[in-house]
């Protein structure tokens, strides 16, 4: 049960609910990010519910273990390098 995999770690996000302070999305990517991404409009917190891999940023590479929170301040340039199926819960806030 659940949504079919679609898009990459950014384009595959499916908005569940939102208000003026936060957007909450689910992501089950089917593709790997081809380029780096920078969110200039909000801070992101990603709970990696399923999957592992590496998070590549403009500063360093970090392990991306499953069942962990990852916080990206606004303006951080990053790209996921996943290993296996991924499932993320994403919180984005402009505040």
Describe the structure.
With 95 residues, this protein is mostly beta strands. It has strands spanning 13-18, 23-27, 37-38, 43-57, 61-63, 68-72, 77-93. Strands 1, 2, 3, 4, 5, 6 and 7 form a 7-stranded antiparallel β-sheet that branches. It is globular, with a radius of gyration of 12 Å. The protein starts with 12 loop residues before the first strand and ends with a strand. The model has no long low-confidence stretch (mean pLDDT 89).
General form:
globular
Q: How large is the share of residues in beta strands?
A: over 45%
Evaluate the radius of gyration. Answer: 12 Å
Mean pLDDT: 89
The arrangement of helices and strands along the chain is: EEEEEEE
Label the structural class.
mainly beta
What count of helical segments does DSSP give? 0
- Segments where pLDDT lies below 50 for 5+ residues? none
- Helix percentage range: under 10%
Strand tally is: 7
Summarize, please:
The chain has 95 residues and is an all-beta fold.
Walk me through the topology.
Blueprint: E1 13-18, E2 23-27, E3 37-38, E4 43-57, E5 61-63, E6 68-72, E7 77-93
Antiparallel strand pairs: 1-2, 2-7, 3-7, 4-5, 4-6, 4-7
What are the salient characteristics of this protein?
mainly beta; seven-stranded antiparallel β-sheet; 95 residues
């Amino acid at each position: 049960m659940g949504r079919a995999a679609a898009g990459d770690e950014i384009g595959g996000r499916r908005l569940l609910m939102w208000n003026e302070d936060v957007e909450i999305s689910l992501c089950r990517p089917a593709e790997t990010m081809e380029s780096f991404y920078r969110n200039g409009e909000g801070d992101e917190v990603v709970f990696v519910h399923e999957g592992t891999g590496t998070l590549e940023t403009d500063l360093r590479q970090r392990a991306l273990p499953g069942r962990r929170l990852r916080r990206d301040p606004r303006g951080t340039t990053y790209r996921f390098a996943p290993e296996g199926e991924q499932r993320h819960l994403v919180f984005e806030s402009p505040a």
